[in-house]
Amino acid sequence: MVGVGIVGLGFGTAVHVPAWRLDKRAKVVAVCGRDPANTQKKADELGLEALDFESMLARRDIQVLSLAVPPHSQPALIESAARAGKHLFCEKPLASNLAAAQRAWEVVAQSSIRHGIDLLFPELPAWQAAHDCLPRLGPLKHLHLSWLLESRAFRDQLVSWKTSLFEGGGAIGNFASHSLHYLEWLGGKVQRVLAWSTADPAQQAHAQLLLQLDHQVQASLTMAADAFQGSGHRLEIYGRQGALRLLNNSGDFARGFHLEEATREVPKWRTVVAPEVGEGDGRIEPVGRLVSRLLDCIQADRPMHPGLAEGLRIQALLEAAGRSLREERWVEVGHD
Fold this sequence. Notes:
The chain has helices at about 10-20, 35-45, 55-60, 75-85, 100-110, 125-135, 150-155, 170-185, 285-300, 310-325; strands spanning about 1-5, 25-30, 50, 65, 85-90, 115, 140-150, 190-195, 205-215, 220-225, 230-240, 240-250, 260-265, 270-275, 330. It is α/β, with parallel strands linked by helices and about 325 residues long. It has two domains: about 1-120 and about 285-305, NAD(P)-binding Rossmann-like Domain (Rossmann fold), CATH 3.40.50; about 120-280 and about 315-330, Dihydrodipicolinate Reductase, domain 2 (2-Layer Sandwich). The strands form two sheets. The chain has a nine-stranded mixed β-sheet with strand order 14-13-12-11-7-10-9-8-15. It has a six-stranded parallel β-sheet with strand order 3-2-1-4-5-6, sandwiched between helices. The radius of gyration is 20 Å and the shape is globular. About 50% of the residues are buried.
């Protein structure tokens, strides 16, 4: 059994705890939060111990720390965990800025720990099917993403990292950290980025991005976390010989995607994957796949993908998008 400590009481107890419990090789031992009373309450509800972070680092029966904390808090925890020899499962974005992410990565890279990051869309069946369909599309021409919803943080005007661009939130930090990863997975590496927004610069609740990918493929992104009755999550992929579209307006972040395909040979849209149905939070199962992969890599002593290297790559793309917003121009992005 691998002992796991969960750091963070919100997403940590709602998704990380049940995700780890899906794998019988893992035993969730304890939870850690900022407020001792609330931490104890959550621990009692889940049948776990309540510990502070330093105690988690000291416990020999905890080999993995699963971090579900705001981006601005995560790098320091990553560095401490790596120095203590604890394997890591982290959230995205990795940090609130590239410099902090780079420092954390340097500490991790000098350690012997294994690490993963919660980039869950490539774990979803509809997205995997879309990746498998790509060869039938021929050379890609362009991709268009529309991700429009009203998040609870913006709807209720919560004081949260998700409503603060400077803490790693806003539409770019919260949505584009996922989108930039899966667009590179599907369409190729980003070469340069152009971003703009009319939203409050402190929150950046909505934004648009243009990306130039490898082989002159273009991608456009329209994202909003403040769109009342928004149309949901829609990705369209166009090639010379066909097209795909992934659609989800179910209200579930991860469950409910509908994949359709059309080709020049069969031009009528046909369903490739019907929307998944199920109860509970749709994020638990794909996060469960990721943490199981991390356990595989710990046991085999090999790197996991996606890991913190992919998290650092996303952070570099987010930094480029932020720079483009400020300077109102295209910003070049390297492959490293």
